[in-house]
## 1
Amino acid sequence: MKSSLSPIPANSPGFEFVYVANQRCECGGYFATVNQSLQGSPTHPTERVLARCEACGAERAFVFDISSFFGKFERYDRFQQTEDTFRRAMAALRAGKPAEAEAALREVVDPEKGEPAFAWGHYHLGRVLLMQGRAKEAVAALERAVAIQPLEPDIHRVLARALQAAGQKERAQRHLQRAEELKARFG
Ligand SMILES: [Zn+2]
């Protein structure tokens, strides 16, 4: 059973579920939470989430750093706010307002105000930056997304595009190959 080496930062319980539900198993399936247990010390609480792949049944444990909200009940609903900001960003993007979308997405992945381990936040931030011709910044955002969700073909594909735009052709090629290989494997 695989487990993350360092605790995943979470600023709300809602995000723990979202993080787990967005993780892909090696088989291509997605994980669903089975149970949660509190760990760590009173000054540095962590939560261990046991999850099971909905496709093949493989189990995986995730450990979250919950010290930013544990015991602070007014913070428990905070993911709602992050989701609203994310929706606002997507609406700005559709309306052709990349600067507005960028500002909202930076809030979505903000270490204090948002959820820094939200891969789709980094992914869309990368897309918005690329759209504005800021390839190097796009690469940085997309590399964070790919580190969080390494088995997502779409993230590798857009990272390849950003690398290409930044003049890193070999690395671009590697991520493009990875995207194709994952897509072929998952079907
Ligand atoms: Zn699986």
## 2
Amino acid sequence: MGRLDQKIAVITGAATGIGEATAKLFASEGATVICADIKEEKLNQTVENILEDGGQAEACHVDVSSEESVTAFADKLKKQYGTIDVLFNNAGVDEQGGKVHEYPVELFDRIMAVDLRGTFLCSKFLIPLMLEKGGSIINNASMSGSAADLDRSGYNAAKGGIINFTKGMAIDYARSGIRVNSLSPGTIETPLIDELVGSKQENMGEKFREANKWITPLGRLGRPEEMATVALFLASDDSSYVTGEDIKADGGIMAYTWPGKMLIEDEEWKKGTK
Ligand SMILES: NC(=O)c1ccc[n+]([C@@H]2O[C@H](COP(=O)([O-])OP(=O)(O)OC[C@H]3O[C@@H](n4cnc5c(N)ncnc54)[C@H](O)[C@@H]3O)[C@@H](O)[C@H]2O)c1
């Protein structure tokens, strides 16, 4: 028996990265997964892979930042399925923008439109499909929603907004049987990170990953599959008494402070003997 048997799960941003890994896991746990994204080719590939593995999935072209696109999506789901059980608001974009006085207004608007407004729009128009039976909403936030990054104030604002928006929705819908939680990943190996800091093959990307080892207690970047298992916990009845929570899955980075002894001073760990 799968933990999501008979469930209809909607995942935005399911073409790549965390969304793709979660779509695969949810399908393997018995859910029919509605995969939504703007990257059609990659989205179709995600769905094909799930079908080949014997799972149930469907690809839907949806731009989460567009009210028109999201309402059309909600109408289609209502006609086709009537109700849904799980919504993973995962679609997101990120980019360096500079200090606030240099930060392009267009970039701020774009990040807000996809990350925060997209989460609002999908929740607003898909929650009616959950009111009859209840369900679980997971919003993909970030550790960047609880602490700040250099030159990324738009992303920090959007993700901080998502964490508190989550709490508001949790309270609003608790008595309707809908639980709402956010997931705050640390740094995860996905195309988003490749674009932000450079891929493993690029010089800057390699430097970033090396430096990251020394600020992340678990000593490495996370994998998309490691976010998918947290999303599964939040989507399933395993988390039946959890709502309004932000779960950090960040290799311990938000638990770490300095000054004091630095991780980089741990000679045995550095040598790989620990
Ligand atoms: N990778 C990380 O280190 C990290 C850390 C913290 C939070 N996150 C969050 O995780 C989520 C998934 O990111 P990822 O790392 O898997 O990156 P990713 O780039 O692989 O996935 C993001 C997906 O969102 C889709 N998308 C972008 N704009 C869209 C739109 N307007 N409508 C529909 N889909 C859209 C993209 O096409 C892509 O498939 C994002 O919300 C991101 O902010 C990622």
